[in-house]
Amino acid sequence: xxxxxxxxxxxxxxxxxxxxxxxxxxxxxxxxxxxxxxxxxxxxxxxxxxxxxxxxxxxxxxxxxxxxxxxxxxxxxxxxxxxxxxxxxxxxxxxxxxxxxxxxxxxxxxxxxxxxxxxxxxxxxxxxxxxxxxxxxxxxxxxxxxxxxxxxxxxxxxxxxxxxxxxxxxxxxxxxxxxxxxxxxxxxxxxxxxxxxxxxxxx
Length: 203
Hints:
Blueprint: H1 5-10, H2 19-37, H3 43-50, H4 54-60, H5 64-76, H6 79-86, H7 94-118, H8 135-150, H9 161-173, H10 186-195
Helix pairs in contact: 2-3, 2-5, 2-7, 3-4, 5-7, 6-7, 6-8, 7-10, 8-9
């Protein structure tokens, strides 16, 4: 049975994307699949999830290895975490701002760990350089963004915001990663950082 004429004429194609937009869309679709299936994920599965033909992938990526490398670089990039830090409301109390920052940075660490772990990357919490996504550069940018979060309380801080930011990141990224010693929640971490390790019952 022929579809009604109005359905045929009102149907519209999805807006076209530039190669860079298409590339970014494929990467964003592929990352959770890589985290789940590792390097065994197929380009056909990625294409189905993205709602495109498999051949479209190879119009913006040379091969599957290039796609995997692009996904790793994206996972290591601090851009998303920095946007989250930049979006924190600076009118909030310092403890609330730091809790939001800790939550954003813990999520960033989890994203890195998920994709690197699924692809078999080893060597500690901070992997090495992958196509320009260097650890040192990333940490410098994150530290600078966190210092901006601290800036409104600059006068009350014992040290410059940049140094306090480095200390906070050190506490955040050196937490234990075992079942018997779970991570502190963002609120717990901020409480320890701002008020010290002693509880209110200590003498």
